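RESIDUES AND SHAPES:
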Amino acid sequence: MIAEYFAGVAVAIGPEGSGLEDRSSQVDVERAAEGEKPGGSITASTYVQGVIVEVDAEDGVVAVQGPERTLALKAGDDVDLADLEVGQTVEALFVESFSVSVEAAPEVSGALTMKMTAAALGVGVQWGDAVLTMYDGTEHEFKVTGLSLLDVGVTTIEAEGDVYRLAKNNNRPC
């Protein structure tokens, strides 16, 4: 099985009465429909109201005292803090989301082993050998070469791993 997930966080802040409260304090849970691949998501929105206790326009930071703690919030570079004042009431909406999907693992086509060496003094070269061993036991050897700039040193790299989803091309011999 292969599981993929996404996690996200968003914060919106506005003056008192901006309407953020209308989208707040809710939890939404969804799951994949019956017969689909497993998956689901959960989103939680939390609304708070606070008072600005400090505005640092030079560093783009606003400190807001909420019901439980004071938060220092870094504004984006494109946000103008000139209209904010200490003592002003603001609303904030904090949204967290998480989703996950699961699918069957793809069929393994084979395995790859590789050994490379790189040497450089300003201009570098890399060379190495690799072997692709297919699931039926056949082996395909190949060479790996490359060129780099502004490198210094000698390095040896060894790598191995599975190869997935190779398709047979009947128009070309392997």
